[in-house]
Amino acid sequence: MKLQGDLTLARRGFRLETGPFALALDGVTALFGPSGSGKTTLLRCLAGLEPDVRGQLTADGQTWQDGRRRRSPARRDIGFVFQDAALFPHQTLRGNLDYAHRRAPTGGPDVPTVAARIGIEHRLDAAVHTLSGGERQRAALARSLLSRPRLLCLDEPLSALDWQARAALLDLIDDLARRTDLPMLYVTHNPREVERLARQVAFMQDGRLTRIDSLADALARPDSALFQPPDGAASVLAGTLGPAGADGLQPFTTPGGVVLRLVPAGHDGRQRRLRILARDVSLARTEPAGISMLNRLPVQLTQLHPLDEHRVLATLRLTDGQMLMAEITAYSMRELDLTPGQSLYALVKSVALID
Ligand SMILES: Nc1ncnc2c1ncn2[C@@H]1O[C@H](COP(=O)(O)OP(=O)(O)OP(=O)(O)O)[C@@H](O)[C@H]1O
């Protein structure tokens, strides 16, 4: 789905002013920004839920907003999952989903099929008030899917959950995004969720849509808003885990052929994401021997960006074109006499599979 537009909404003390934008939605698009930047408001404007919005909006060429005129939310075919699932409290889960199914266009999946897909079929006869937070969010997801939306909007769906339920719901959303062609707009202010799920990132700041980047581009900018304490800068590499070799280590191979060797972490052959913190990457002028770091990757230094008086963020290009960040001291930068364009070795101390 392609959303194009330019929307404004004036509220007391807050103004949404997107500026002209074109969002090609495919997989998960994260809507990322600090609290109060207008993410929820923008999502509600896209869904047609804000009566006072003005401007232009089209979805695949269909007009959704023209000046003050608004296509109704019901005629936009958008599914919504909010922070806290609003379910009918006096009904069972099945009752809630049956209600959604009756209102859905005919020809869609039935309640048992969707419940099984979302992993809540064993709770269908439970009263809604007995559902856990994670189950409530799954119920909201199932209810949205029953309406066969063209676009699924998720507004901080994990925020009311504990870490275990968060991890399980992230897995489910990721799996849905991989296996269906349903585009998702996912509101969050958590960079880890963006790195885990997103294919692209729309950044918001003070009511403005400041930029739209692929995840790789968003992580290749030294001043990326995704780089926040305590982790700081990080890189995410896409690739596939292969079976362990004679050395007992598992190769992680990027589409461009860069191979990292990992301590065995399971093997399923599907695309995985590897997260590398910039502070876990060191640099050497020549390939070092006699060190315990498994991964020594040839790279080209493209940029040096001072973080403060003592620390520098180095942007590195791997041989397959993907970018890797290294945080080094200003002292090391001078000692190694680093300048952009140089060929170096990146020494990777630690990696984490994040999906
Ligand atoms: N119903 C409302 N009436 C008036 N002001 C509102 C309303 N909802 C939100 N606001 C204000 O609009 C601004 C943007 O809020 P919004 O919820 O869109 O931000 P957000 O980026 O989604 O924040 P968060 O991450 O905290 O959910 C804030 O200043 C907020 O206080």
Keywords:
single chain, 355 residues, alpha+beta, Rossmann fold, OB fold (Dihydrolipoamide Acetyltransferase, E2P), 2 domains, six-stranded antiparallel sheet, six-stranded mixed sheet, 8 helices, globular, binds adenosine-5'-triphosphate
How would you describe this structure to a colleague?
This protein is of the alpha+beta class. It folds into two domains: 2-215, Rossmann fold; 234-353, RNA polymerase II/Efflux pump adaptor protein, barrel-sandwich hybrid domain (OB fold (Dihydrolipoamide Acetyltransferase, E2P)), CATH 2.40.50.100. The chain is built from eight helices and 22 strands. Strands 1, 2, 3, 5, 6 and 7 form a six-stranded antiparallel beta sheet that branches. A hairpin with a 1-residue loop joins strand 6 (62-67) and strand 7 (69-70). Helix 2 (93-103) runs parallel beside helix 4 (133-146), helix 3 (111-118) crosses helix 4 (133-146) and helix 4 packs parallel to helix 5 (163-179). It is globular, with a radius of gyration of 23 Å. The model has no long low-confidence stretch (mean pLDDT 93). Residues 11, 14, 33, 35-41, 189 line the site of adenosine-5'-triphosphate (ATP).
